[in-house]
Design goal:
Number of helices: 27
Strand content: under 5%
Largest sheet: 4 strands, mixed
InterPro entries: MetalloPept_cat_dom_sf (IPR024079), Peptidase_M13 (IPR000718), Peptidase_M13_dom_2 (IPR042089), Peptidase_M13_N (IPR008753)
CATH superfamily of the largest domain: Collagenase (Catalytic Domain)
Strand order of the largest sheet: 2-3-5-4
Protein name: Peptidase M13 N-terminal domain-containing protein
Organism: Rhipicephalus microplus
GO molecular function, one term: metalloendopeptidase activity
Pfam families: Peptidase_M13_N (PF05649)
Length: 649
């Protein structure tokens, strides 16, 4: 009898918990039901992902994402991006591309196809890559017979090859004088991310040995001295860490200042005469004195200090090692797989992003021309613009009520204009928004295309280019173009499930609206850090510190979380105005409109099975959002409704 009583008690307890959670999720939802094809697709996508046995007030990430993680290797963002890329791939491979006289769309398509051929093993450029590296003075893994000229190598890998792993050089021409601009390497984040991602020394050694085998070249030269793993990693552990620290705080959007430390550093063997001699190899001649400038003086100074401390030979070896890792991604499928730890699934999705980002260097919009025209022909743009404007209005209202608001600090240059945010979706931009004087691309040779493009872009300001490269690689939906005072949506941002015109407003605000809020938060943080009074800077620092102390573990990027945190209030406020007229996805009508907003917002963050700790994805921010706790009736003190909340605007 006791056993039966215990069993009955257990069943009753479980039933009580289920009913309690169910009561939280059955607050009166919208009466209008959406049964369109998009809503049916959304139901099929999201409902299996939700784990109703989890209390959303304990872990909203697990509540929304458990099913997705169980059934998928990739994240929701990665899957969405792959679907867009598949449409791009179809359009580029059916597009007729002439050998000469290509327009921007054809150039971008040719570059993408040549990259796609390498990724999928239809092309192998390893021999050509080795030749180009040697032209830059890189003989890795062979130790140079004569001391390497580091300055020449840095200039060549940037100005001629586009494999600027450590520094990037561009030439800014003005009516008064030509200026050489130096900044952190456009590929530096790829090098650092790869190095930081190794979990074991053995994995890193396997990666190193595969590169050493591939780039060794002539094995008949048995007397050639080769670099060792220990020496390479020894220098890397010093140089890469120091540069990464400087990179993380470098002012990439600041004003240009003279890079005197790089121009005149006797202990590193650097002088204006040496610079002028090195630049002459590239037929770059300056009238008057050499004007070397940077927006990242701390990064440049760190590079010079390392050059002086380690010596030119060791720094040349380090730069060679970094550059080889970048060049390997242009070589063949085997080395691409090596970069992605032999994981073909991971390599596929990230290589798609790699190829898209390279083709977008040609033009931000041209590669997506066919896809974008389909978007423009639909009613999507009208609704998407209204979602964007409503979040902007809400953000501005909240900003102007913030105690530290300063009307002299510009967060957004024109709150009512959407010209910059939707730049990628205008008819005019698609054929004309090229990066400069471009040249015809070769469908069959990624390496030749990349070298030609790098030379053509020598005089192009690279700040926006680099931000787009990394944004695509991280599957982000917006960038913050330098000097625009606004954000710009990526061409793939208006694709299901991030946005679809016939979906309920809760879903679209949880997708596109959340992107807009995060972008505005990023602009706000950047503006008030740079121009705000000490009091506002202290508030930002306190908010960041509070997020870092969160109970759910570390996030991938605290800066992204901070930007999102400062935008989420505007997102919720904007949606509240739309909620009364909103409908519901048929099959999910048990959830209220506000609950669906947070479900959509969180589901877009769901990670696949390859990711480690996923708790912070949704919990790290939503635990501090009072409207979330209200929507799910979380008790005070519950994990998703802590007694101490971080404060934003």
């Amino acid at each position: 009898m006791a056993a039966i009583a215990a069993a009955v008690f257990l069943c009753a307890s479980l039933l009580f918990v289920s009913v309690l959670i169910g009561m939280r999720l059955t607050t009166s939802g919208p009466e209008m039901l959406c049964s369109s094809s998009a809503c049916r697709d959304y139901l099929d996508l999201v409902k299996p992902s939700i784990n109703t046995s989890i209390d959303p007030c304990r872990s909203f990430t697990h509540f929304v994402c458990d099913g997705w993680e169980r059934d998928h290797v990739f994240s929701v963002r990665q899957r969405q991006f792959s679907e867009v890329v598949e449409r791009v791939r179809e359009s580029t491979f059916t597009l007729e591309i002439p050998v000469k006289g290509q327009n921007e769309t054809q150039m971008a398509a040719a570059l993408f196809r040549s990259c796609d051929d390498v990724v999928h093993g239809r092309s192998d450029h390893l021999t050509l890559v080795r030749e180009f590296l040697r032209s830059a003075g890189i003989t890795w893994p062979q130790v140079p017979e004569n001391p390497g000229d580091l300055l020449y190598t840095l200039l060549c890998t940037s100005l001629r090859l586009g494999w600027d792993a450590v520094v990037t050089f561009t030439i800014s021409k003005t009516p008064l004088a030509d200026v050489l601009v130096v900044k952190p390497g456009s590929s530096f984040p790829f090098i650092y991310d790869k190095t930081a991602g190794f979990e074991t020394d053995e994995g890193k050694r396997v990666y190193f040995n595969e590169l050493k085998r591939a780039f060794r070249g002539d094995r008949r030269n048995v007397t050639a001295k080769m670099v060792s793993y220990e020496d390479t990693i020894g220098v890397e552990s010093i140089a890469l860490v120091k540069l990464a620290e400087a990179y993380s705080v470098s002012e990439r959007n600041g004003s240009l200042t003279r890079a005197q430390a790089f121009l005149d550093a006797p202990d590193a063997g650097l002088s204006e005469a040496r610079w002028i001699a090195a630049l002459s190899y590239f037929r770059i001649n300056f009238t008057g004195e050499l004007n070397l400038v940077t927006r990242s003086p701390g990064y440049v100074k760190t590079l010079v200090i390392l050059w002086e401390a380690l010596g030119e030979a060791q720094m040349h070896s380090f730069v060679s090692w970094c550059t080889v890792q970048v060049a390997a991604l242009y070589s063949n499928r085997q080395l691409i797989l090596n970069y992605y730890d032999k994981d073909s699934h991971k390599a596929e999705v990230y290589s798609d992003a790699f190829c898209v980002s390279r083709a977008m260097l040609m033009s931000n919009a041209a590669l997506f021309a066919a896809y974008t025209f389909q978007v423009l022909r639909s009613d999507t743009m009208v609704d998407a613009r209204e979602v964007t404007l409503s979040v902007r209005r809400a953000f501005r209202d909240r900003l102007e009520k913030w105690p530290h608001y300063d009307e002299n600090i510009t967060v957004v240059s024109n709150w009512t204009s959407l010209d910059v945010p939707f730049r990628s979706f205008t008819h005019e931009e698609i054929p004309t928004f090229a990066r400069g004087s471009l040249v015809d691309m070769d469908v069959g040779s990624l390496v030749h295309n990349w070298v030609l493009l790098s030379k053509a872009l020598t005089g192009t300001p690279m700040e926006n280019v680099v931000s787009e490269l990394y944004a695509v690689y991280k599957f982000r939906y917006h960038v913050l173009p330098q000097g625009e005072g606004d954000f710009q949506l990526m061409p793939y941002a208006l694709h299901f499930p991030m946005y679809e015109g016939s979906l309920p407003a809760a879903v679209n605000y949880g997708g596109l609206g959340a992107v807009v809020g995060r972008a505005l938060g990023g602009l706000f943080v950047d503006a008030y850090r740079r121009y705000g009074e000490p009091a506002s800077a202290a508030v930002l620092a306190d908010a960041k510190s509070c997020l870092l102390d969160g109970q759910f573990g570390a996030v991938d990027s605290i800066e992204d979380l901070l930007a999102e945190a400062y935008g989420v209030g505007a997102l919720v406020a904007a949606y509240k105005l739309a909620a009364p007229a909103d409908n519901s996805v048929e099959g999910m009508q048990a959830y209220s409109s506000m609950q669906m907003l947070f479900i959509a917002m969180c589901h877009n963050k769901c990670q696949g099975s390859m990711k480690g700790n996923k708790d912070p994805e949704c919990n790290a921010l939503l635990q501090y959002v009072p409207e979330f706790a209200d929507a799910f009736q979380c008790e005070a003190g519950a994990p998703m409704n802590p007694s101490r909340r971080c404060q934003f605007i």
